[in-house]
Amino acid sequence: MVSTRIDWVREHCRLLRAIAAEFARTRPFDGLTIGTGIHLEAKTVALLLTLRDGGARLVSTGNLNTTQPDAVSRLRAEGVTVVGGPTKDSELHATYLEEVLAAEPDLILDNGGDLFARYLDRPYDGLVGGTEETTSGRMRLEPLRDRLERPILVINDSPIKQFAENEHAVGQSALESYLRMTNRVTNGEQVTVFGYGACGRGVAANFRAARARVSVVDVDPVTRLRAHLDGFATPPRDAAIASADVIITVTGARDVLTAADLPLLRDGVTLANSGHFPAEIDVPGLTGAAGVASTTEYADDLLTLELTDGRRIHLLSRGHMFNLAGPRPLGNSIESMDLGFALQARCLEAVARRHVDAASCIVPVPRPIDEAVARAYLDLKYPSAQAE
Ligand SMILES: NC(=O)c1ccc[n+]([C@@H]2O[C@H](COP(=O)([O-])OP(=O)(O)OC[C@H]3O[C@@H](n4cnc5c(N)ncnc54)[C@H](O)[C@@H]3O)[C@@H](O)[C@H]2O)c1
After folding, report:
1. What average pLDDT score do residues 309-326 get?
2. Which end of the chain is more exposed for a tag (fewer CB within 10 A), N or C?
3. 3-state DSSP call for residue 261?
4. With the C-alpha atoms ordered 187, 190, 196, 200, is the resulting torsion angle positive or negative?
5. CB atoms within 10 A of CB 377
6. How far does residue 7's CA lie from ligand 1's centre (Å)?
7. CA distances (Å), 49 to each of 56, 74, 120, 177, in order?
8. Is the pTM of this model over 0.85?
9. What confidence tens digit (pLDDT) does each residue in 35-49 have?
10. What does the pLDDT look like over 255-299, one tens digit per residue?
């Protein structure tokens, strides 16, 4: 029998498989619609089908530039309503998000705050609450807390998500994607990582493990000190840019690298972003800058800017999350996503069952859920040891 990669992923999402079997009995989402705006790829298929098995009607769209057609086809074949398809066009993507909200979901599974923020522009009765996956979404929604006034659990703020996905898995997938997309050496190269939060720590560690010389830039002096004590160089920002062969942004902030930095960039430097929004590197500003004479587009989303002074600047995925992009993108490891998505499933269950109230608006995953997910993972990994 030949099976698809989506089946391979589902096979290894052991937590989600166990939760789906339980949900099929307990049906926490019976009669409820869940609206989702999260990357549509093999691992999210496993999550969405788990929610469906719990009785949910799902209306789903992806995020900018990360929707995978095979995931969309599979979800549609399994009865999920999928709105839209792959796009980098933010205006078109906005129409997809509006269409999800037009279904007036009872629960929202958000990624980047897109759906909750839009809900406030066109509120409807019956939204119970939901989850937000990312740091960027939490930062966007926190100022709106007084208006949202319903339980919204932030998956990113679980320690499990922080270390399993953000640190270990994003670091690995950033390195894997860099090698896959560029097929270029890391040994001896000077890599500058902007942002030394959970994701940045993993990116820096993985490139160091691939024999690159890694320096870190972070606006927070305490975090810079941490990077220093972890053994990374922490030069001043401009010096770090000027010496880099590769610059990776992963901060959650906007305009971390802009056209104003063009004079600093070395010939042959590669720029890549792994932060959620494609706004960390100002790609329109860079490509449209006066010093850019021409551009060359290569296959697989590689773009080179040729400057009037002869320097060449390479951009991966035009500033979109490069660790989820390029030819045959794999993204973060299956197990790391299984952990994060088990948190998602359990948090949505808690909101659906009214185990959390409006006081839990933009708060971390409740500790008992973290503990239950950690225990379940270890139980599956070492069944006999845990039984002792
Ligand atoms: N690509 C992926 O698969 C993936 C997965 C998870 C999270 N993310 C995204 O990655 C980004 C970072 O997430 P995190 O969990 O590491 O966040 P974090 O808040 O833990 O860390 C961000 C760090 O960036 C620093 N920073 C902010 N602005 C800066 C600037 N202009 N220059 C240098 N440093 C700056 C902060 O001081 C902080 O130390 C977010 O956008 C998040 O949504 C991406």
Report:
1. 95
2. N
3. helix
4. negative
5. 18
6. 31
7. 9, 10, 28, 27
8. yes
9. 999 989 999 999 999
10. 999 999 999 999 999 999 999 889 999 999 999 999 999 999 999
CA of 137 to the centre of ligand 1 (A): 12
The number of C-alpha atoms within 13 Å of 227 and in the hemisphere containing its C-beta is 30
Give residue 200 CA to ligand 1 midpoint distance, Å: 7
| Residue matched to tokens 């996905």 | 165
Count of CB atoms within 10 A of residue 203's CB? 32
Beta carbons within 8 Å of 134's beta carbon, 6+ residues apart:
111, 112, 113, 155, 156, 276
| Cβ neighbours for 242, distance < 8 A, ≥ 6 positions apart | 264, 265, 266
Closest ligand 1 atom to Cα of 331: 3
pLDDT confidence of 317, banded at 50, 70, 90? very high
Residue 79 pLDDT greater than 60, yes or no: yes
Q: Which of 257, 260, 263 is nearest to 316 (CA)?
A: 257
Give the residue, out of 39, 133, 135, 160, with the most ligand 1 atoms within 8 A of its beta carbon, to mutate for a pocket test: 135
pLDDT of residue 59: 98
Classify residue 143 by burial, with Cβ atoms within 10 Å: 0-12, 13-18, 19+.
exposed
